[in-house]
Description:
Layout: E1 2-3, H1 14-26, H2 36-56, E2 60-65, H3 68-82, E3 89-93, H4 98-109, E4 113-117, H5 126-132, E5 138-142, H6 156-166, E6 171-175, E7 189-193, E8 204-209, H7 234-246, H8 252-266, E9 271-273, E10 284-289, H9 294-302, E11 306-307, H10 322-325, H11 330-333, E12 336-340, H12 347-364
Helix pairs in contact: 1-7, 2-7, 3-4, 5-6, 8-12, 9-12
Amino acid sequence: MIYLDNAATTRPCDEAVKAASDAARDTFANASSLHKMGINSEKLINNAKQVILKRLGCEGELLFTSGATESNNLALFGIAEAYKRRGNTIISTAAEHPSVARALDRLEKLGYNVIRLAPKDAPDNFEEYIFNAITPDTILVSCMTVNNEIGYITDTPKLYRMIKRKYPDVIFHTDAVQGFCRILAAGDLISVSAHKVHGFKGIGALYAARGVRFAPMIYGGGQQKNLRSGTEPIELIAAFSAAVEAYPTDNSHYDTLNKLLRDRLSALPNVKINSPRDRGISGILSFSVDGVHSEIMLHFLEEEEIYVSSGSACSKGKVSSVPDAFGISAKDADSTIRVSFSHENTAEDIDKLVNRLEQGIKRFRR
């Protein structure tokens, strides 16, 4: 089996599995309980926060959520509610993950002025393009660090510095899910997810810089400083922390695999690479096979237990708006394959993938 769909989800690492099992047996108490076992659970949570904050390179508050979808929604709706008296303009991009894009749709219906900018309109200076769109009425800028479909990188540390220098009151949020543990992200609010870094599904986090106010979405027992109520899932948190600690700091393996795949694809007829070479993360490579519908090729690869994606797994059965935001034609979008690596993948995996692709092109392209 060759698994090349790691942008959708990753296999839980051994360290995460062990940490979850250990916590389930030994540190399972409710962290809100006042007895010794509850205090031990609270210590585990606090230690996990420090591990994740250290990997983010940030100092501030970390809230555990059910995943990045909740983190993104909490950031957008929480800021919109907390700062609505200051203004009603929100700036984002036309290439965001559905958990941001659909939340923005809802905010627009609630009366907020949402501006969506396309990377194709400023591919080489997208950070300046976003920055120049800020108005005195802007309360929030939300821009993902790495696009989940083609791997395009926005330099969020640069954009964050630009915004804070001139507009210190504007809140900057970034969905850093595809970049976490790989490249540096920056913002007042940063969303991350465990199952993209070999942790478990059902757990994510939202980083909040000191002094940032946002309204909670979930009310209850007042856990996590009343900002995200609900009993903390100790086992998932322990696994998240363990996965982050175990994640390699050297990601040059991705660079090697990406270059190998690019070189092999460049030799194939009727294949177009969509991921930018200079502004793309090496863990994701998107390409289109002219004349072959992506779903047909995907299932052809699956017959040999080679697993890739036709785009965002969150857009299953739906047409994604992301390709158009990057200037990719509807025809190319219809034949797109996304390959996303983990440290478990090998050069042999790439060779088998490309050999099967060659067979598919000969069979299906007329």
